[in-house]
Amino acid sequence: MTSILVSSAPAESTRITRLPKSTSRTFDSQSLPGGGLCWIVPYSKPAQRPRPVFERPVKLEDIEPTESNIVRLARLRELLYSVGRSSILCDDISDDQQNIPNWSVFSSQLIRKENKTEASTIAYNPIIMSKPTDYSTIYTTLLRAKEVATSLGQSHIPVVFDMGLLTKALEIDWSQDKKLQGVIPVEGGMHLLMSVFAGIGHLYGDAGLKQLLIDSGTYAPATVNNILLGKDFDRALTAFKLVDEALYNRLLINFDAWCAKNNKNMASEVRMMLSDFRSMPTDTYAESLDRFVDTLSNYLTPYLEEFREEGRNLSSTFSLWDDYLAKVSTPLKLLIASTRSPNWTVYQHAKLQLMPLLFASNRTTYARYMTVQWLQMNMLPQDVKEGFLEGFYTAKLSSGTFNNVWLEYALEATQNKDLKGSGGKVGLTLRENALARWFLARPISSRYSAVFHDSIHATSKPDDKKHNNDSNSKRNQYDKAVMSMTNIFDGNFIDPFDVTKTPEQLINFATGAHANEDVELSMKNCLTKGCELFESFVTEGLVEKSDGTEAPEKDFYSPMPRSKIKSMSDMNSKPSHKKQKAKLINGTVMFQCLLAINTYKKVPSERVFAFENTAVPMSMFTDDGKMIKTRKSDFMKKLEELLPESQTMTSDPLVVIFDGMALVQILPAPSELANFKSMASAFHSYALRKARESSSHV
Question: Angle of helix 69-86 relative to helix 285-295, nearest 10 degrees?
């Protein structure tokens, strides 16, 4: 199990002392200081699973969202970005001229100079050679964290886990209150986002989101599948920002048309503000931010809310995607932004806003434990709360602005990357002593390597004044993707926010497929249903009785009810095996189809009946519709059965048949062939040479 220590204080350039040379010529992994690499403290599970522990009784009012001025300002910043990038309400900016940078660069320009921080100091902890998911391994890690806090003179130390380990770490912490006093298990923001991405894919993927990402040419189908399953994290971060901007563009385009149709004359202050915003230098955004958001709040937001309310009443499709923008996409961007530029208040608010999505998409483990985590994070000790308010719940891998990362992301990008990269543990896993020696030396050798690189300035240090996405190539790539997604609605896709053309019923805006009544009602109220499940879980599983003497109604670990939300993917479910088979063997229907084919094509009936009435031969598939797996050796045996027992070999054959895979294996090693073109040329040359030698056809 790997772990790191992260400090907000910048590292000082200190000289590392030389390690003493060992006198022993052998290495024993069990006779090391501290008990060895495999030494762990055994953990005994209690007879009953411990309940969550809170500093004060939980009330239902604790989860009621309250929008503070800080959160309101963060939301208006996102609206300012969307309106500024949409090129509406400004005649001197054309659609293909984009002066506002992409989201990351724009957000980085809003950070004032006095709020910029240096890179964090990251130290590698000794690696524990034990299964990470084992309770004893997690218990040992928590005890080591407690020792670190004590040696540093800290009364509390937060320890970040991914959800698979956090569930066990919390149970250990709840049952070992005295031994682990001051140790605070915390969820990892990166894995939380991955669960949110999977929830979005579950609810909205087949409503048009998947086709939007693929048909716009932005991502390949396999990549989109991984994004909507919450697997491809880095690409998903960009993908959902692109989707948000494209959908907001369509919303604002239709809002502009609605204002013109209904004589909603926008105040001149809005047009002047947008004109100034789009023409001013990016490094002056922070100075005029307050004026910009006040203008939006006073003059544009009331009309926009009126348009959204009218559209929600007219179209279920409008209502679905407006809910997505307001209750999913915007909190998602706030969660990312409050990590890149730490803001604990906004971070907590964004997590609370995304809780209904976790319940609605049946992300039960995250829904259960994130509820507890959110409540516990609102009851932190004062010194920990002050540290989180200063942004110490994130790590900073390099200098610059708007580039903080989640703590478990820092672990993946530092220690785990070193373990799996060049010089990693590949090839050592079957040699116990070599693997133990490597585990022991790797944290130290990595530190030596980092100091060496810093001493010779080998590592490229980014420009503190620019974001790493602030380059012409990355700007053009981002703008091109946004333009492609936005303009696709002018072609084959149906604009979900165009109330003059979009049907009243819920549809897939990519294919035009209509949802049935059950799916439409379920999808329209999916986030409302998630909110109800969220409140029910807190009320029944965490809130104590009014007198405070009785436990909650339900056990915390009791099974959570499913949301039973029917998404548009349920309409694509395949019929059962029996119904499908009955339909295929319907003789009357098949006979009528064959007669119709015969009448149209005017061919003999014997020839028509010689073929199956299917698009592809049914012999290639099993009864449940899966393609039958075959082997080339079976095909060879069938060919051999067709050959006569006695064969006459000729010295001058007419045809030469090559086994393609065998030919590829005959060719030189791949390292000698620079690319696929070289391999294809070698393949072609070999086949032609052999054919010329036998004067035959290939």
Answer: 90
